[in-house]
Batch of 2 targets.
Target 1
Amino acid sequence: MLEFNDVSFAYHKGCPVLTNLSLIVQPGEYIAVAGRNGSGKTTLTRLIMSLLKPVKGKITFESVDTRNYSPADMASFVGYVFQNPSRQMFHDTVIEEAAFGPLQIGIPKVDAIKYAKEALVKVGLDGFETAYPASLSKGQKKRLALASVLSMKPRLLILDEPTSGQDQQDKNAFLALLDQLHSEGLAIMIITHDMSILAERAERTIVMCEGVKVYDGLALELFRTYPIEKWGLRKPVAVAVSHRLSNYGVPFAATIDKLVLELKEVGRSGING
Amino acid sequence: MGKIAPLTKIIFTMMVSIWAVALSSPLSLSLVVAAQLILMVIGRVEIKTYKATAFLALFAVILFVIQYVFVHDIVLALITGLKMMAMAMVFILVLATTRVQELTAALVSQCRIPYEYAFMFTSALRFVPDFLNESQTIQEAQACRGYSTKGNIFKRIINYLSIVKPLVLRAISRSETMALSMELRGFGGERCSFSSQVALGITDYAALTGMAAVTVGVLF
Amino acid sequence: MSEIVIDDLSYTYPKSVEQALEGISLTIESGSFAVLTGFNGSGKTTLCMAIAGAVPHYFGGAMAGNVTVGSLKTTESGICDIANTVGLVMQDYESQLVTLTVEEEVSFGLENRGVECSEIARLVKEALQMVGLSGKERQHTAALSGGQKQRLAIASVLATKPSILVLDDPTSALDPEGACELYELLYQLNQDHGLTIVVVEHDLSLALPYASNFILLENGRIEKKGTPAEVLQYMGIKQQYACVLPELWKLKLGLETDSLCFSDWSTSEEAANELLHCVRSKEAEKSA
């Protein structure tokens, strides 16, 4: 669906922020992008949105070079939810906010309102159509920001740090919502520092370090074999603990639930040899 | 230029303005501009200062052309352009060679300008880069929602509101935090000291005497 | 000595009908590392503001009860005097920075208090050293990274030598590495300089290795307070807080049975060691 072919980017000559990046995003994937602040994660997503143009290499969407697409053109394919939802909001009612995108990309008003309503239902904000966006809670604002891009019917959804600043309740609700959208066939790319998202949800993890893609594959494999501290990531507790116990018949586990099961199993059956 | 006290530079700014107003030959005005250029070189200002100066020069040329088109007097047009250049350039020169905190300190402790006013100047400068960043982020966020700058002028102005509103909201919340922060840190109290050294030295008195002499020469 | 004493504090913001804080009574001892947690809207920020005296001095509104920090009663002291005892790093710490350069930022509070020039230079140097920003004196604030800006905000409130440091949700914009470094710094300030630390945090696993107290807020009330272990045990029992538990405690509570009990882990190292011990002894039992 989306392809980066040996893409490099620099704001100033000699200071590359992204170097020789190649990657392919397939329809319906769930990808997590991790790495330090300033490692090039946001540059990657801005390149996807055509907010930046590659200095070298080519980006294609459905085999069409995106160089001549404006960000507004890209918006009908890719929905980008910014980290701080209040920067995206400027209308007086929730429904106007959600309908803004489809209206901008030339969808007739009747349909735009219909899409907006559908999107609000999806994120659980039906009934809030006439509410003032600024009066919503933090978690609701985040979901409104999501609805405002869903109403444009994108095929890929990019979320920049969707869980930062949210409490655990809102965070889990938001992630469950993404799971639902993903199961409906939407591709998801989530930029995150939250290792539990990598361990529990992502089918694929990309790690960026100093503008270079240093890992692209399964999160389990990443945790099992790679020196992730070097890339500014943190080992989940389950990984650290199961690693220490590996000599005693405890299999590798990336999530707490799995580790608890495994340890109970070891406790029941005893250790052989 | 680092060793010259900020007060001297403030006086220098005023003097240059007086000279620029009083002088009326293209040659002497050119001299003032040239002298400032030399001071920039001596003061080892950054590249962006020269860029700002070049921009100013462009502006002066435009002024010159307009004046010439309407009045058809080439000398008068030249003088107007040079006067503008000489006066505006001195601000760039002084700002480029002085730290803002020293200027504030001099304005408050030597020129008796109330601290609140001098501080407003500093804090405004502090927020320019943040403000630009913020407006870029918002523009990008809107672009990602299909907002485009195409269309006729009215549509564009209406669309532009989409950037202004979140920007203003953010600026308000930001200024509230800032106001609280300033209050917590004792801003607006009676006593106030400055960590910058702004006292005048021998070079300053020499420079001031020189400036006074030039001024006398220019005026009489 | 009790550093912060809050006695039956209730507070309502102006133009609001709901109470933001309701009957809060809390004592934080000198030298504590206290962590405030709870869902969004539970009153964590308001409580921080009350400790720093911004509630009610800056925000207005209706306050009942007392807050005493050090020897000052916040209702009877000026906000700036309270700031000599309590340093506040706000959630939006970027906007808290008001001057152009690093050096100016730290000296700002000192200049406003009329401190001598030579003394300012010394205090600025000391504060920057404490947070690891030495050598960046002349840099522009706008050019610093997020983590550095936060350190600068800390240095600028530490310069006036408060005995309490309050931080509102400091890690939300940091990466995992930056968050760990911040907690290391706070712990160092707590241990080496005897500062009392109060920090608002959603991710308890970050604070767990360092904290001496946990305070759980819910709807403006204290739901549970005590040692981290006490509060985490309580969260483990109450279903709605299960998602807030740090991974380490999910593991502990998931494994514990009536006959099996672990100690109160605060790092995965501790957990691994104890589990290792368990598995080994089981193995020895079996071979015996």
Target 2
Amino acid sequence: MTPCGRSAGSVGRWEHFPHDADIGVRGFGTTVEEAFEQAAMALTAVVTHAPVEPKIAVEIRCKASDLELLFVDWLNSIIYEMAVRQMLFGRFAVKIEDGRRLTATLWGEPVDVERHAPACEPKGATYTALKVGVDHSGTWSAGCIIDV
Amino acid sequence: MDPARFTRVDATTWRVEPSGPMRVPAIIYADEQLIRDMDEKVCEQAVNVATLPGIVQASYAMPDAHWGYGFPIGGVAAFDADAGGVVSAGGVGFDISCGVRTMLTGLTVSHITPVQKALAESLFRQIPAGVGSTGAITLDTDEMNAMLSGGARWAVERGWGETRDLERIEESGCMQGARPDYVSDRAKERQRREMGTLGSGNHYLEVQAVAEIFDATVARVFGLAENDVVVTIHCGSRGLGHQIGSEFLREMVAAAKDARIELPDRELACAPINSEVGQRYLGAMRAAINCALANREILGHYARRVFAHFFPDCDLKLLFDVSHNTCKVEPHVIDGKQRYLFVHRKGATRAFGPGHPSLPAELRDVGQPVLIGGSMGTGSYVLVGTASSEEKAFSSACHGAGRALSRHAALKQWSGRKIVDDLAGQGIIIRSPSLRGVAEEAPGAYKDVGAVVAAAEHAGLARRVARLRPLICIKG
């Protein structure tokens, strides 16, 4: 798997997983919120491996009928903000209520083509390989394929 | 995949007979090696599509098929609205009307060689490519709506293209039935500054040389001769299409449930064609088709400007512009009766044969140019639609080489720098804002495009006319 967001041993981490044409993102955490935040880190890493400075904060909200659909909405909301603001995000704080309503703050900076050398542009999060769940040890994971 | 899973009809036709919830068979066109190399998911997804309501004849997969979203990429399926047929946002894809255009330059390789580096540099500077690039065009609300209704015609009216191009673009450059009012504000906002941009991923602008001619008669009609130079552009409807795709996918999960459609995979989300959501999607999707047609017309205009600078007498003529992610209403003859069907092509190119009434007079006798993009190092093909394609797969053919390795695996295996240097050694100049992007699109990560088009020809989907080799590749 590609480089992880945090040191080994920490529960909060992310990974990329392969898809024929595109790429999968998956976040892990001790809470579902942390798993969502880590998956967002994985989404940024689809675009760049360079550090992203937390210079500007953006607030987002989404609502969906279940946690998995909420996860896709969450990633699509980030993709939307990346596209219209021409920004990358490197820090995320997520709050989820009732498993259906999400509020979050993203911190990031405008894309610097030279420094970030963006590899590709995410088009949208998909329902392919979509899974949000908790394992027997209490670790949450949230992942799906991103169309790039 | 194990070929034993299929009934082998002939060397390039593999069939899964209907069973369980399948309403029609699934048919894959490919040679045995391509079948062996295909992901298991292709068969699974083609079979899933065969379960959807109102599907007609069969669920098809083209020789370049690979694991997609709900539908395989390289999937073709037609639905009858009057038989409860559905329209699927996943069956069109996120990059609505992504497609290819090829322009003839009237130049030969000997013209390009002395200026190859400078031309590459100039194209790279003039064609906005990659993340963080914006076009020179910003659209206000009225212009956005005019673009979404007018397509390439709108671009020509604004001076970003030529009237003579229009007859060489599908739908004469303007998709009817577009409903800009069904496109969300978020989708429009995403597109506001993206007209005339290439995007990233597998999108590119290439200067190519005709390396080989397979059919001299058709090549002459197309205006292609060995050593001729052409410009090929591969891109789609940019952020607007992506946003429409995401929004309707979400809505169609609920719509399918409301219509009591059992989905074997949520990504197959769809709505009956004769439903409010179905009609709204069709109106928005057609607006996105216009966005893609306008975008490629503008990019073609930029390429003309650069070529005019280097070759003042050069006249870039459009050979053809064809999309490979669409849903179109077309008449097809089923069991001797003509029916209007909603043909989904997800990573599949429309391939009308000789005599088709939608083709311009100059092309009608030979058939439609079918433009197949290969990987950036190996080359591309120009095919022509055949008479047999209609009964084989509703006049459809492959669209590219198809990936053999994931981006993930490609990144592990290749370095972008080395690819750029190796290709430079072969006389191919790559310009891209991202070396990692180059590595992800490494030529070795794709299937052998030659094998794909040979299988398409053998299966009667389209016939080879010319092979193109890249000289310059501007990659997003």
